[in-house]
Amino acid sequence: MIAPDRLYDLALVFAFAALALAQLLAMIRLVIGPDVTDRILALDTMVVDAIGLIVLLGIAQGTQIYFEAALIFAMLGFVSTVAYARFILRGDIIE
Amino acid sequence: MTGIVLIEIVIAAALVVGALFMLVGSIGLLKLDSPMKRLHAPTKAATLGVGALLAASMIHAFAFGDGSLKELLIMAFLFVTAPISANFIAKVAIHRGQDMPPPEPPNDDTWSTLDAPDTRPGRPDAPVEP
To answer: N or C: which end of chain A has fewer CB within 10 A?
Structure first.
């Protein structure tokens, strides 16, 4: 039986490793993606994974100062995804 | 003492579940073989995973520091915007002909996303038939 505080540390390390691996897999899709559709999707996934990593960093250090960074990442990620998609669809972002 | 232990177990469970969901989303993004299938893996699984991670962060803040519900802001924003960006990416895939073409609509001429206004018959700017 693992001690509970050890369990908590293990879960944190596992989450960091899993998110880093997820980030790497998304980056592979970003590089090999056959079309621009897959590249936009891979970038969107990488932004969400980055938000997860920032939140994990906040948990690991026990601070709340990374909250604003995560919120700004969420907003800019959405706006950039829509801007990319709109640029591909219409050839322009703001008409 | 027992309360702290219980809370740590809850946080650990939320962390593991969230990280697994995000990992599954990225594996699906890499492994599936057509753009529409790839679209469906990360937009749902990764959003759910980041929700679980934010829940873990919220429980942690309430248990060990000055708790607040600020993480709910990120969660709500992500849960609202993920379907919208997924819809935009799906539109890009349809218009670039990346996947198989959509089926015939049941009672109209075409789907609204493929219906460009200047190609409709009867419009003044419609292309002239030779």
So the answer is: N
Nearest residue in A to B53, CA atom: A52
Residue B84 CA to its chain's centroid (Å): 8
Determine contact: A64 vs chain B, CB below 8 A. yes
- In the three-class reduction of DSSP (H, G, I as helix; E, B as strand; rest coil), residue B33 is classed as coil
The full set of domain ranges for chain B reads 2-99
- C-alpha span between A47 and A44 (Å, rounded): 5
Q: Collect all residues with Cβ–Cβ distance below 8 Å to B55 and sequence separation of at least 6.
A: B14, B18, B71, B75
Residue of A56, A74, A48, A70 whose CA lies nearest to A13: A56
Chain A residue with Cα closest to B11: A8
The answer to whether the Cα torsion of A38, A39, A40, A45 is positive or negative is positive
Residue B68 DSSP SS3? coil
Phi and psi of B32, rounded to 5°? -65, 160
Q: Which tens digit of pLDDT belongs to each residue from A40-60?
A: 999 999 999 999 999 999 988
Q: What are the angstrom distances between the C-alpha of B100 and each of A16, A68, B103, B124?
A: 38, 41, 9, 32
Question: ipTM above 0.90?
Answer: no
Domain boundaries, given as residue ranges, for chain A: 31-95
B18 and A58: CB-CB below 8 Å?
no
Residue A74 to residue B81, Cβ atoms within 8 A: yes
